[in-house]
Design a protein that fits this description.
single chain; 260 residues; alpha/beta; Lysozyme-like; seven-stranded mixed β-sheet; 8 helices; 7 strands; 10% strand; binds zinc ion
């Protein structure tokens, strides 16, 4: 009698923990085709797409990892301007009569944040720091916001940038800003691929934020606001791997309506 076929190989915890990052993310990117030049050989034997677990296994979550805060370039080091509290569309400070104002969250941020929302900048100029300054200028001068909309920038060279302070509400996802961390990957991913260094540091940032803030969900901007394709097709295909690395559910299901 022929022997029965061996059981399909399952991904072990070590697979996920040891090979998270570029391998997992590159795996998610395989669906965009063979044009990607940085798939690692090991990835070829892996399932093209790991099913997303209904309950993120604890062993896969950020909580189960030892996660160091990624190096973050502070505002003064990339030449950020000070917030402008006379800004037209985010003027003054939040209050019962000024719900669109600059909102500083009170108390423990773990009680505020549930979701990380991923964006692309579309705009890209010369290098990452220049791009951060250009984004902030656009948000201050064209959008009329008090500061850059996002809490973090993820550069093409693998550098994380501090954006709007984490204890201040962002302005990056219309109608869903309260309790949503804004992370922008620098580049236009409707046309270009994110760099491996960018995906890896972005993954580490989101893992760390998940642990720090006890997040539950990761979404792309377009999941909340259907009038945008942000973060672009070539970054959107990496979202499931980013979510899985941190043990986050993918989608908008974690959003808490603002009751304040
Ligand atoms: Zn966006």
């Amino acid at each position: 009698m022929p022997r029965s076929a061996p059981p399909a190989r399952r991904l072990s915890r070590r697979d996920f923990l040891g090979l998270a990052g570029m391998t997992a993310i590159a795996g998610a990117l395989t669906c965009v085709g063979a044009s990607l030049g940085y798939l690692v050989a090991d990835d070829l034997s892996r399932p093209r797409r790991a099913p997303f677990p209904t309950q993120p296994p604890a062993a896969l979550s950020a909580y189960a990892k030892q996660i160091d805060r990624p190096g973050i370039l502070e505002r003064r080091d990339w030449g950020a301007r000070e917030p402008d509290h006379s800004a037209e569309n985010e003027s003054g400070f939040y209050g019962p009569d000024n719900r669109e104002g600059w909102r500083v969250y009170e108390g423990d941020l773990r009680a505020v944040y549930r979701t990380v929302v991923v964006h692309h900048s579309v705009l890209y100029e010369i290098d990452d720091s220049t791009t951060m300054r250009a984004i902030q200028q656009q948000h201050l001068e064209l959008r009329g916001w008090a500061d850059i909309a996002y809490h973090f920038g993820v550069g093409r060279n693998g550098q994380v940038f501090a954006g709007r302070p984490l204890n201040v509400r962002g302005t990056h996802v219309a109608g869903f800003n309260t309790g949503s961390v804004g992370v922008v990957f620098l580049g236009d991913f409707s046309q270009d691929l994110p760099t491996p260094a960018q995906l890896e540091i972005g993954r580490r940032l989101i893992d760390w934020l998940t642990l720090r803030l006890e997040l539950t969900h990761l979404a792309g901007h377009g999941d909340f606001n259907s009038d945008t394709d942000c973060p672009g097709q070539y970054l959107r295909v990496a979202l499931s791997a980013l979510a899985q690395s941190a043990g986050l559910a993918l989608g908008t299901g974690g959003y808490l309506p603002d009751s304040a």
